[in-house]
From TrEMBL:
InterPro entries: ADTRP_AIG1. It comes from the Eukaryota. GO terms for cellular component: endomembrane system; membrane. Its main location: membrane. Keywords: Membrane, Transmembrane, Transmembrane helix. The chain crosses the membrane at residues 12-30, 50-69, 89-109, 129-148, 160-189, 195-218. This is Androgen dependent TFPI regulating protein. The gene is LOC102081736. It is a multi-pass membrane protein. Belongs to the AIG1 family. It catalyses: 9-(9Z-hexadecenoyloxy)-octadecanoate + H2O = (9Z)-hexadecenoate + 9-hydroxy-octadecanoate + H(+); 9-(9Z-octadecenoyloxy)-octadecanoate + H2O = 9-hydroxy-octadecanoate + (9Z)-octadecenoate + H(+); 9-hexadecanoyloxy-octadecanoate + H2O = 9-hydroxy-octadecanoate + hexadecanoate + H(+); 12-hexadecanoyloxy-octadecanoate + H2O = 12-hydroxyoctadecanoate + hexadecanoate + H(+). It comes from Oreochromis niloticus (Nile tilapia). It is found in: Endomembrane system.
């Protein structure tokens, strides 16, 4: 087998394995629907109130790796296809920065005080392996993707940041977290209740700057790994 064919084979196996892993996680999450929730899991708003569930299901990890697996089956110059360009955009602007952000923020808060983000009572509902599936393994899988395939990043101008920020803040923060708070007066993430109004705005802007930094980091990692092949 030629080196190029071997690389393509490894890439295809990687994408199918990653997609299957996320499909398995989503199935296990769906199987939890209807079970009695322990204290510490806020029911109102459903699982979509948590960024981690949205991160797994909606246009991010599972969708990206599914598209990547389909793209591997395309004959000819895959990099020039519309599917490949969309896949690269999805990875660079959404999957890598948001997925990495979830891992870093979750474990930073967890290390400080887990009750602010993932109360101990949740362990009786979500087993530890599922917690790591949602909040740990996401990052090494994304880094593995950087190593197995080059991704064409949009030019580093304000334009690619707009859809990223729209998705991350409008769809998640304003449409879910703040909506739930305005409806019932309870923050789905206890940490947010520790902030004053100006502090909350500052926290959101800080998160925005971290996500943008992670976008730039992904671009730099891809450039260093693949160089002129991009």
């Amino acid at each position: 087998m030629a080196p190029t064919e071997m690389t393509s084979a490894v890439r295809g196996v990687y994408h199918i394995t990653a997609f299957s892993w996320y499909a398995f996680i989503v199935k296990n999450l769906n199987d939890k629907d209807g079970e009695d929730l322990p204290p510490g899991i806020f029911v109102y708003g459903g699982p979509w109130k948590y960024l981690t569930f949205l991160n797994l299901v909606s246009l991010l990890q599972m969708t990206f790796f599914g598209l990547a697996a389909v793209n591997d089956l395309q004959p000819g110059k895959k990099a020039e296809s519309t599917l490949s360009k969309f896949k690269d955009f999805l990875f660079s602007v959404f999957a890598f920065p948001v997925g990495t952000f979830v891992v870093l923020l979750f474990w930073a808060i967890f290390a400080y005080d887990r009750e602010l983000v993932y109360p101990a009572t949740i362990d009786t509902f979500f087993p530890p392996w599922m917690n790591h599936a949602m909040h740990t393994f996401v990052l090494p899988i994304l880094l593995g993707e950087v190593l197995v395939q080059p991704h064409a990043y949009p030019q580093t101008k304000p334009k690619p940041f707009f859809p990223l920020l729209f998705f991350f803040y409008t769809m998640n923060i304003f449409c879910r977290i703040i909506w739930v708070y305005m409806s019932v007066g309870i923050w789905v993430y206890p940490l947010l209740g520790r902030f004053s109004a100006p502090g909350l705005v500052g926290f959101f802007f800080f998160n925005m700057s971290v996500v943008i930094s992670l976008y730039l980091l992904g671009n730099e990692l891809s450039r260093r790994v693949w160089g002129k092949r991009l």
